[in-house]
Design a protein that fits this description.
Elements lengths: L10 H14 L3 H4 L3 H6 L1 E4 L2 E4 L7 H13 L2 H9 L26 E2 L2 E2 L1 H20 L12 E5 L6 H10 L3 H6 L4 E5 L4 H8 L7 E6 L6 H18 L4 H4 E4 L3 H7 L6 E2 L14 H11 L1 H20 L6 H15 L4 E6 L7 H13 L17 E4 L10 H6 L5 E6 L15 H18 L3 H6 L7 H4 L7 E6 L4 H22 L10 H20 L8 H11 L14
Parallel strand pairs: 5-6, 5-7, 7-8, 8-9, 10-11, 10-12, 12-13
Antiparallel strand pairs: 1-2, 2-13, 3-4
Helix pairs in contact: 1-4, 6-13, 7-13, 7-16, 13-14, 14-21, 15-21, 16-21
Catalytic activity: alpha-D-glucose 6-phosphate = beta-D-fructose 6-phosphate
Subunit structure: Homodimer.
Organism: Panicum virgatum (Blackwell switchgrass)
């Protein structure tokens, strides 16, 4: 087992703590006046440009953070991940989402075996199946081609693929490939989500993809059984094998469910759920919708950042710089949240995906060796596309709490519009705010400026902006499948860097287990009370009272009732 020494006990950590006071005395207005500093606080890779000059940091801060990375053995930890060593020690697993998008000739080992050929075997199978499906050769029970796909999964089996799908929908090349098709996702066990996911769909032309590694995930399997019944009630039991496929490794349960095991697509224990969008979890439904060539471009984009992360010096390594700055903001400046603000509606599902990716990875209270941490890890991630967010929560980030912000912009819009007679194009109007908001946060507005503008005295306190609120800007050249893959990989590795520095395990998620365990007890109680009239017992007074209220109306289950479509 690795040493149980905590990073916060190192001299490098203490040097950063001592450095905080000098930074807090310096306003971003003054830091931004140093052109050489601003120029130095940038990094670029394949046209992706990072400007972090609006962080509350100096060149000295960055030097100290790089020394902290050295103390945390960041380079060695990254190398271990890429070599397939079992860095997820609590589950004794490798962490190899990078292998999911590696080139065919790459060598990435787990347990001494190169996993890349197996990954490509699954991708080749997806390519072949998606081409058969999209050509119309795969037909349903009544002989009709299938044009609608409902992907059933939850957590990482839902949020990542939904983010990519939403981003691709308005990319011209991807949209052309998706004409006449629909891809929907069913995640929540709430029957409302079932109703929404199949609204206006015809079972005759619908394929259901059930995504569950073990084929036992409670919510996913209940939803899968619900859609199975929807198909059977319309087309008969023999239709299941034509209208349902699986992403799973449990071929026995797949077969028992009624799905042909030949139509099950594998993924592996070394792929964490929230890192699985580049596996069959995401690649299969996305390939059915857009075609495998589009999805392969997405994977190649992610792979390009993998290589940049693995091989670039830390001084110009975008994921490393982002991860170190996040550690600085959380652990030293005391900012517990991060706003993800993409100035692109196509990225509207980025923040929800990063919420899971970040908060499930780094929301830990002990070190990787099980030592309680005397410091906070992880961030509260939230966000909304600009300019919608400006009319929602920007009031708070300008004049309320200090929340570091990620501004993400795109040079070339997926859907450019320019109206004759307008001052600027629609995209330029959007991007005007992308460039203005970081400066507004950094510089603020002083009472002296307001006095010079003849603002009434009683309004001066209300219109004063203190500024000194950190942000960073990430500018992408376009938003094609390739850049979407790059953006995903940047955030995946940034989050891993934070965990590596904090000395935690960013690849397990034991915190989700307790609630699920307690829910199983409630499930048994609900069944007993509904079906056998058993009294509520074995719970605390509050939960017992709530359950009694919930169970009060006598509403026996009717298994024949399905959502209307």
């Amino acid at each position: 087992m690795a040493s149980s020494a905590l990073i916060c006990d190192t001299e490098q950590w203490k040097a950063l703590q001592a450095h905080v006071g000098a930074i807090q005395k310096t306003h971003l207005r003054d830091l931004m006046a140093d052109a050489d500093r601003c120029k130095a606080m940038t990094a670029e890779f394949e046209g992706i440009f990072l400007d972090y000059s609006r962080q509350q940091a100096t060149g000295e801060t960055i030097e100290k953070l790089l020394k902290l990375a050295e103390a945390a053995k960041l380079k060695e930890k990254i190398e271990k991940m890429f070599k397939g060593e079992k860095i997820n020690t609590t589950e004794n697993r490798s962490v190899l989402h990078v292998a999911l998008r590696a080139p065919r000739d790459a060598v990435i080992n787990s347990d001494g075996v190169n996993v890349v050929p197996e990954v490509w075997s699954v991708k080749d199978k997806i390519k072949q199946f998606s081409e058969t499906f999209r050509s119309g050769s795969w037909v349903g029970a009544t002989g009709k081609a299938l044009t609608n796909v409902v992907s059933v999964g939850i957590g990482g089996s839902f949020l990542g693929p939904l983010f990519v799908h939403t981003a691709l929908q308005t990319d011209p090349e991807a949209a052309e490939c998706a004409k006449g098709r629909q891809l929907r996702f069913l995640a929540n066990v709430d029957p409302v989500d079932v109703a929404r996911s199949i609204k206006d769909l015809d079972p005759e032309t619908t394929l259901v993809v059930v995504v569950s590694k073990t084929f036992t995930t409670a919510e996913t399997m209940l939803n899968a059984r619900t859609l199975k019944e929807w198909i059977i009630s319309s087309l008969g039991p023999q239709a299941v094998s034509k209208h349902m496929i699986a992403v799973s490794t449990n071929l026995k349960l797949v077969k028992e469910f009624g799905i042909d095991p030949n139509n099950a697509f594998a993924f592996w224990d070394w792929v964490g759920g929230r890192y699985s969008v580049c596996s069959a979890v995401g690649v299969l439904p996305l390939s059915l919708q857009y075609g495998f060539p589009i999805v392969q471009k997405f994977l190649e984009g992610a792979s390009s950042i993998d290589n940049h992360f693995h091989s670039s010096s830390f001084e110009k390594n975008i994921p490393v710089l982002l991860g170190l700055l996040s550690v600085w903001n959380v652990s030293f400046l005391g900012y517990p949240a991060r706003a993800i603000l993409p100035y692109s509606q196509a990225l509207e599902k980025l923040a929800p995906h990063i919420q899971q990716l970040s908060m499930e990875s780094n929301g830990k209270g002990v070190s990787i060796d099980g030592v309680p941490l005397p410091l906070e890890t992880g961030e509260i991630d939230f966000g909304e596309p600009g300019t919608n967010g400006q009319h929602s929560f920007y009031q708070l980030i300008h004049q309320g709490r200090v929340i570091p912000c990620d501004f993400i912009g795109v040079v070339k819009s997926q859907q450019p519009v320019y109206l004759k007679g307008e001052t600027v194009s629609n995209h330029d109007e959007l991007m005007s705010n992308f460039f203005a908001q970081p400066d507004a946060l950094a510089y603020g507005k002083t009472p002296e400026q307001l006095h010079s503008e003849k603002v009434p005295e009683h309004l001066i306190p209300h219109k004063t902006f203190k500024g000194n609120r950190p942000s960073l800007s990430l500018l992408l050249p376009t938003l094609s499948a390739y850049e979407i893959g790059q953006l995903l990989s940047i955030y995946e590795h940034r989050i891993a860097v934070q965990g590596f520095v904090w000395g935690i395990n960013s690849f397990d998620q034991w915190g989700v287990e307790l609630g699920k365990s307690l829910a199983s007890q409630v499930r048994k109680q609900l069944h007993g009370s509904r079906m056998e009239g058993k009294p509520v017992e074995g719970f605390n007074h509050s939960t017992s009272s709530l359950l009694a209220r919930y169970l009060a109306p006598p509403t026996p289950y009717d298994s024949t009732v399905l959502p209307k479509v």
